[in-house]
């Protein structure tokens, strides 16, 4: 987490207010692993989402997925795609300003966090919301970049978001509701950025992928997401390279699926992975905190 810099006993937060402009779909590299959205209905399974409350402390109000030698969700050795449905408001997620600087995504309301504390080895990545826009950053060691979205996805409606990273040149893209929202044509986020299983670290959250929270509980300068997430799918390869039709039903597992979380359990603390290798744990805040099951979903 290169954005976290210790100065005395305080954490310093960079406030850069530049926003990346929209990109042309014609400029996206044509390198297709699979373009199928592979959606389906699941008869007899209640459709639910997870409601997070932006707690940002105490290792709660989040979903945690262990990264080990058997969890296929540990993508990053090559190209990868992460997609999900999101709903929320800028009132509940007020952080603003986005920069293409390395690790700047960590300054937003963090929705998906696969950070490594400090420069680390190999690499890390994360997705957050700044001014309602998606910020997606990837780093390899101490070098990388952040792509800043343009579309407001925190307008109180459900939106489908997909991000991709191309390993050969560090290209980062954001897709919103099937349209190219923003891209960095190249960055230093090249090569292997997967989590190196077995690495020594004094930071207990390092070997986890986390949904709905800033994983290290580093303080209010690095806020967590307050809103709804559903249908999180992690894929190997560049699933989207041209505009596509926004999905209209739940995903199914295909050959490129590393992990898929429907969030449809409705009970218990185990979060199932439809791909089978990477189950998660729902870390619940006491009382009325989250994450809570919700029947507010992007489609029936």
Distance between the termini: 38 Å
Radius of gyration from the alpha-carbon trace, in angstroms: 17 Å
Count of discrete structural domains: 1
What is the CATH C level class, in words?
A: Mainly Beta
CATH topology: Jelly Rolls
Indicate the mean pLDDT: 87
Instruction: Name the helix and strand elements from N-terminus to C-terminus, one letter apiece.
Output: EEEEEEEEEEEEEEEEEEEE
The major pleated sheet works out as: 8 strands, antiparallel
Unreliable runs = 2-41
Which band does the percent of strand residues land in?
A: 25-35%
* Subunit organisation of the chains: single chain
Number of strands: 20
User: How many helical elements?
Assistant: 0
Q: Which class best fits the helix and strand makeup?
A: mainly beta
Question: What distinguishing features does this structure have?
Answer:
300 residues, Jelly Rolls, 8-stranded antiparallel β-sheet, 20 strands, globular, disordered N terminus
Would you kindly provide a written description of the structure presented here, covering whatever features stand out?
- By secondary structure, the protein is mostly beta strands.
- The chain has a single domain (5-294), classed as Jelly Rolls.
- Helix content is 0%, strand content 35%.
- It has no helices and 20 strands.
- The chain has strands spanning 5-7, 10-12, 39-40, 49-53, 62-66, 80-88, 109-114, 123-130, 133-140, 143-148, 159-165, 172-176, 179-184, 208-211, 226-236, 250-251, 257-261, 270-271, 280-283, 292-294.
- The strands form four sheets. Strands 4, 6, 11, 12, 13, 15, 17 and 20 form an eight-stranded antiparallel β-sheet that branches. It has an eight-stranded antiparallel β-sheet with strand order 10-9-8-7-14-5-19-18, with no helix packed on it.
- The relative contact order is 0.28.
